[in-house]
Amino acid sequence: MKKNLLFICIFIASMTLAAQDGITLHFMRLNPYSQYSSPSAFIPYTGHVGVTGIGNVNVSIQNSSLLFNRLFGSDSEGTITTLKLNTFADQLSEKGNYLSTNIGVNIIDFGFRVKQMYFSFSYRIRSDGYLFFNRDAVALPIYGNMYYANQNKIAKPELSVCLNAYQEFSLGIQVEITPQIYIGVRPKLLFGLAHNKTKSAYASIYTNPDDYVTSINHNLDAELSCFIPYSINTDTTDQAGIAFYPEDLRNDWPNMFKNVGAAIDLGFTYRINNMFGVSASILDLGFIRWTTNNYRLRSSTTDAGYYYNDGSFIFTGLNYDDIQRFNEDPEAVKKEIMEYFPVEATPSSAFTRMLAGRFIMEGYCNVGKHHRFTALFQGRIVNKQFLPSFTVAWNGTFLNIFDLCVNYTIAKKSYGNLGLGVGFNLGVFHIYAATDNIFGFCNSKSPKRSLLNTHTANLQAGIVFDWGKVQEKKLGQTAKTKKSKKDKKTTKVENETPAPPLPDRQ
User: Fold this and answer.
1) Is pLDDT of 479 > 50?
2) What are the residue ranges spanned by the domains of the chain?
3) Under 8 Å CB-to-CB from 94, ≥6 apart: which residues?
4) Is 6-300+342-496 in CATH node 2.40.160.40?
């Protein structure tokens, strides 16, 4: 089914709606899936098995700028009353506005303990997408080009997209080196499903304030890959668009396993004493080699035509003849204009791209057996953009059956994120749910506080079976035990030593 060429860009952008994993689950010590963000985390069980498809489901969205109440005004009852386009554009940052999302679904996962080691295996479907845009990309269609002419400025709208969707097979190994030191490693085998990355997507638009002549230059360079067979037609004289052929998967299903990659997660935990500890993790350090159905989208320039001059598209206004031509055949005029902005789609050779890795550093304080307070910093670097966040959290575990977490996160342009996680472990049946921003689900019918009006929205939930409760060793317990045993042994030897014989009487 073919779509308009404009839908190519919409398709690319919408695929990113598929930020990083939720962080609340990281703090829930009774949950075996906390190891995904902390490979060295102690798992308090002898084994676990996730329920296929619903053992661990994670959906996250981070939105820096596209908020409902910035675009619409409403009355006390939530009815939309005004459209605040200029206010919306004014509140955008010059650069660094972004929309990032993450989807993860566990298909198979299980784990088991062997003495001081915990092994786990999982098969997951994952998608990480990022869309970055500057203010001009939104402000130009709102303000119009005369806004920039009055300021004698060049409008420079720019977009940047990065998407990776893939299958992940992983083997996790968590080892207790000593009661103070834990390490974790999780090598991964990856099979890519879809990829899109824009190396450049921008335009330069200048309107002369004296004669209002507008010149436009543009550049697009994007790469695409997908396991589903597809084709792209960019011929503006025909119906330009993109066509997918899912029916061909009956013969081409091996494509799902041809984009091969590898990655690794690393973790380290140091228990300073029974009360304090620190840990660090590096996640998704790896790459995918994309080989199937690769395309390169590139803009090019024309060197002739009514609106062409010295390498730029030049618009001097509409005269009577232009208006007449448009009235007689508007489609022909549109096609003529589109020919000044040609896009070439060519098959490309295989290429290798890195994943969007993440790092985490944290310190914690245990208060008694059941309470832990944590401060955590994490960040990603995507398309030369650094996305940091800082979280403080409290986790309480009660009777080894109830897991509760409350946390607060500050992220880029997002300061009201109150997270909540709840888990119930009833025998071997363990059900849980967690979110990094409980406010995003409050009063969802009101535009003033809804999923359309929050910087961060995510939900991570599932059902897992785990068994054989295991407690962390108390530091110093081994030395005290050995000393106690040695004292008892010495006492026993002394008690069993026969009294010396009495001296012979002369």
Assistant:
1) no
2) 6-300+342-496
3) 134, 135
4) yes
